[in-house]
Amino acid sequence: MMKNERIDRRRFIRNTSSVMFTGAILPVLPTDMAKSESKEDSFGFLTLPYLQNLNHDMVVVMFIINSNAHSWVEFGENGFDNIACSSRDGLVDADIRLNKMILKNLKPETTYFYRVVSKQILSFDPYDLKYGEKITSEAFSFTTPKKDSGSVSCVILNDIHDRPDSFYDLFGLAEQLKFDFVVLNGDMFDYQTDERQIIDHLLVPCTNLFATETPFLMIRGNHETRGKYARQLKGYFTYPDHDEYYFSFRQGPVHFIVLDSGEDKEDEHPEYGGIVNFDEFREEQARWLENEVSKSEFSDCKYKVVIMHIPPFYSGNGHGTMHCRKLFHPVFERHNIAMVISGHTHAYGIHPPTTEHSYPIIIGGGPQKGNRTLIHLKANFENLETEMIKDDGSIIGRYTV
Ligand SMILES: [Fe+2]
Fold this sequence. Notes:
Elements: H1 2-19, H2 31-37, E1 50-52, E2 59-76, E3 82-84, E4 87-88, E5 91-92, E6 96-103, E7 111-125, E8 128-136, E9 140-143, E10 152-157, H3 164-171, E11 181-185, H4 195-211, E12 216-219, H5 240-243, E13 247-251, E14 254-259, H6 278-293, H7 296-299, E15 303-308, H8 319-334, E16 339-342, E17 349-351, E18 361-363, E19 373-379, E20 384-390, E21 395-400
Parallel strand pairs: 10-11, 11-12, 14-15, 15-16, 16-18
Antiparallel strand pairs: 1-2, 2-3, 2-6, 2-7, 4-5, 7-8, 7-9, 10-19, 13-14, 17-18, 19-20, 20-21
Helix pairs in contact: 3-4, 6-8
Bound molecules: fe (ii) ion.
Fe (ii) ion binds at residues 186-187, 221-223, 309, 344.
């Protein structure tokens, strides 16, 4: 059954790629305008569902539709007998296009099948809610990890810079690799323009390649802070715990710490037009980090891995780099950080510990062909290993802790 599901899904993706995802998408509309301005287009999904925050007992399913609707997820081990939809304060999150559904109380190490359903809302008058067409996606599946697993693996990409084809090229290298999740380590875009850019340049390639079945983390780089749609970006993703761009989580023997390194220049730089405040944001993260490393779940974990877009070294002496170094590097030194994984410089490299930093710094490359990389991290209780693969398939190097 699993094999057939996979075959059907690939066929579905090919079909939808040619029909739904190449130019037939609606212009980007604010949520409240979408309904009225999309009447000529048939009601439909703008993305396949994508997974976020998959744990042993829960997962978040997200998807976008082209018109306001009431949506839900149907899921189960053998059928679709469970329903999940999101609600707040007693109200279901309806009459929206961007959907975020939490599937709770899942069993560990279990494969679930799921599909998403949307019922268009044609009019929303008091005591008179009129529904239109109902659409249902194809079936997909995901498998929850083992609770307290002894191993973890992931692949890490960075600095794609609005080149959706790079996802296909780099994931072509990952076909033989095992990975529990994918990390997008910043600068997936040059700057944020609108929803359509997020869909076409990130969600379409990611869902076609892996994200319907394997979750990903979208870590912000300095380029995601730019552009008129930067303030809407966070809503398209799900972050663990406190819905911030900085967070931590444990998977297998690794405690991952994700930091948002912010912009690379001073907040006062004319490029930012007087509307950024990254010094304060990094200081807020430094306080959070000090608290985080004081917790027993951090100190008890075998490996501590930091993922941040701008590396604290090997990235010039611009303000962003130096502020990260000043705030975060002393904490890394004091708390036995096993590895820092970054991007930003567009110059890939594996930098072993030196007298300046006691931890290795792994920097992925990009965005030009010949300079793009995929980092594969895997860890068990014996070792933590990263391998960096260049886009021609050659292995740039490995680092083992
Ligand atoms: Fe960058």
